[in-house]
């Protein structure tokens, strides 16, 4: 199943049909992409989304980054609760959103590693940045 996993319909269908899934995405809220692929994601090193920190953070920025990381547990769980209920109805077993995402075979990441901050990635995460760019005039 070739899908954008944000709405979780593709991962649920792939699990139901027992077929591999390929994810095509720009980024995932709450760093669930790193968690699902078991990729190292230390909050003192990897800047959180929407903080506009660079890869070389000051101590204050690192503390803020860690605090935002801890808040992700609070506001991300309710965000995926309804989708986990839907998955339970369809699959007839308890699964979390992270469990469903972890079954992805390949993650096609729509950003360029050169232009983003450096962070650890797993071998099944492929950068395909630039495919959405317009031609320069």
Textual characterization of the structure:
This is UDP-glucuronosyltransferase 1-1. This protein is of the alpha/beta class and 137 residues long. The protein has one domain (2-127). The protein contains four helices and four strands. A four-stranded parallel sheet has the order 1-2-3-4, with helices on one face. Helix 1 (9-17) links the parallel strand 1 and strand 2.
Uncertain runs are none
**SSE class:** alpha/beta
Major sheet: arrangement of strands: 1-2-3-4
Q: How would you state the average pLDDT, rounded? A: 85
What integer value in Å does the Rg equal?
A: 16 Å
Number of helices: 4
What is the string of SSEs from the N terminus onward?
A: EHEHHHEE
* Tally of domains: 1
Q: Tell me what portion of residues adopts beta-strand conformation.
A: 5-15%
User: In total, how many beta strands?
Assistant: 4
User: How many angstroms separate the termini?
Assistant: 36 Å
Helix content: 25-40%
Major β-sheet, in short?
Answer: 4 strands, parallel
Shape: globular
Pfam family, one: UDPGT
Family: Belongs to the UDP-glycosyltransferase family.
Protein name: UDP-glucuronosyltransferase 1-1
Subcellular location: Membrane
Quick rundown:
Helices cover 38% and strands 12% of the residues. With 137 residues, it is α/β, with parallel strands linked by helices. Strands 1-2-3-4 form a 4-stranded parallel β-sheet, with helices on one face.
């Amino acid at each position: 199943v070739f899908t954008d996993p944000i709405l979780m319909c593709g991962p649920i269908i792939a699990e139901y049909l027992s077929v591999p899934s390929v994810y095509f995405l720009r980024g995932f809220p709450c760093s669930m992409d790193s968690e699902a692929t078991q990729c190292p994601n230390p909050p003192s090193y990897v800047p959180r989304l929407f903080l506009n920190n660079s890869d070389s953070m000051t101590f204050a920025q690192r503390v803020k980054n860690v605090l935002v990381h801890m808040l992700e547990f609070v506001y991300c769980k309710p965000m995926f609760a309804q989708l986990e209920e839907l998955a339970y109805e369809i699959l007839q077993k308890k699964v979390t959103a992270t469990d469903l995402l972890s079954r992805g075979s390949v993650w096609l990441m729509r950003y360029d590693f050169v232009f983003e901050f450096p962070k650890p990635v797993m071998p099944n995460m492929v950068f395909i940045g630039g495919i959405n760019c317009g031609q320069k005039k």
